[in-house]
Amino acid sequence: MKLRRIFVFLVCISFIFYVSYKILEPEISGQSLQDQGQLELGLLSLKHHLQSKDLVYVQNSSQRIKKEDVIQELIQKYRLDLSYSLNQSPWRIASNWVTPREIIPESAPELGGILKALITRKIISADIGHKGTQLKMTLVLEGGQKVVFKPRRFDRTHVIEGNPYSGEDRHNGEIAAFHLSRILELRRTPIAVGRMIDLTEEIKQVARIRLLETFFTRDENTCFYGKCLYCHGPETGVCAKGSVLEGTLVLWLPEHYTLKLHKHPWARTYKEGKAAKWETDEDYCYKVTQMDLFREGSRLMDIIDTAVFDFLIGNADRHHYETFEKYNDSIIIMLDNGKSFGNPHMDEISILAPLYQCCSIRQKTWLRLLVLQDGILSEVLEQTLTLDPINNMDPILTTLHLQALDRRLKIVLDYVQQCFHKYGSNKVLIQNR
Ligand SMILES: Nc1ncnc2c1ncn2[C@@H]1O[C@H](COP(=O)(O)OP(=O)(O)OP(=O)(O)O)[C@@H](O)[C@H]1O
Ligand SMILES: [Mn+2]
């Protein structure tokens, strides 16, 4: 009888402790986040990640981690080995990599070999681009792999003025976006790499008539204007230097993964003077969360990840998004990043609306951003890009664009911090979606 009373007493005490902890938890965790210093927390989370099976981390968690070590560790992780030899078809490896939640796996040493194949394999057919407003070609490489070719339209230093979705595609942006998505550990962007193509030798020989018809010559340079919504003739065409044109190849996703198109809940109206609902409604995010697609599951968190990604690259043009049709838990495929890195002087804050209106972010994404702050992101991305074949002719991102990335990353973290102040970090950081 006495034992039973002690037992009941202990249960009551534990319950009281548990309830008080739950009530105080937002304050406790909010406090510690600020106190620890964000950079250190980020670096620690990286160390934790890198040594997740290693108890050393737990014992040494108070020791300072050097920024330079983190940079080196990350550069090592994302380095590409173009001479990596593959023991099966590069196209099969890449196709087998795709799952409903990622396009390439976390550890992908074969990526270098796949990029090498993209750069060197013979082009066996060339056609006008698939759908869309922008000039591009669809190519098939030896071994039957379909790829998109997005041509170079601007010098790297060209600044796109006007509204945040202006201008033709930036092919270099596709490459930078692909590697950024790796470094952010999102891996939702199709594989992309730069390639110099001789239009006369490699394209005209194998082009379908409807593409060939759009070729012309200007100042002794070979040019073409293709077919697309904004392709109107030679005035909208693109010219090679002589016959060699720089561009980006984007690997086509496996055909059995059919894509489904969705309207983006934070789409712009694209009409001067006409605001979208999300621009005027304070409760917009709440309304989105009441919709079946966003109430539970990964979709809303994927929208927020994508908003962070798009803000970093300066892409304000994600009016629609695509998912893998057969999978309810599909990622939002970060497809079509051509409208990026247009203006390094401008930070288009409205791209972050899903983040600051919902005041939520995946904890995993946030930890990753912490690791990359304080100049680490630009340094790791710059180093990773040096392995792309078109980088040595002209760096894929200018210093101004690299600086813009670090500046924007800080802005994202500031918004998250403001949300912590309002709601407490445990409400803002989402772990299981
Ligand atoms: N790598 C790929 N794998 C599979 N499908 C793709 C790939 N790239 C593009 N597509 C398909 O082709 C469509 C058009 O491509 P993309 O969006 O790059 O062209 P765009 O001219 O920039 O289009 P928009 O003008 O709508 O922005 C995409 O919506 C997608 O359905
Ligand atoms: Mn586009």
Word description of this protein:
There is one protein chain. This protein is α+β, with helices and mostly antiparallel strands and 433 residues long. The chain folds into three domains: 34 residues, no CATH class; 174 residues, no CATH class; 172 residues, Phosphatidylinositol 3-kinase Catalytic Subunit, Chain A, Domain 5. 43% of the residues lie in helices and 13% in strands. The chain is built from 18 helices and twelve strands. Strands 1-2-3-8-4 form a five-stranded antiparallel β-sheet. Helix 1 crosses helix 2, helix 13 packs antiparallel against helix 17 and helix 16 runs antiparallel to helix 17. The two termini are 47 Å apart.
Let me know the largest β-sheet.
Answer: 5 strands, antiparallel
What general form does the structure show? Answer: globular
First-residue to last-residue Cα separation: 47 Å
With strands numbered from the N-terminus, the spatial order across the biggest sheet is: 1-2-3-8-4
Please estimate the helix content: 40-55%
User: Helical region count?
Assistant: 18
State the low-pLDDT regions, or none. Answer: 26-36, 51-60
Number of strands: 12
User: pLDDT average, as an integer?
Assistant: 91
Using only CA atoms, what is the Rg? 24 Å
Number of domains: 3
Bound ligands: adenosine-5'-triphosphate, manganese (II) ion
Alpha-beta classification? alpha+beta
Strand residue percentage = 5-15%
Order of helices and strands: HHHHHHEEEHEHHEEEEEHHHHEHEHHHHE
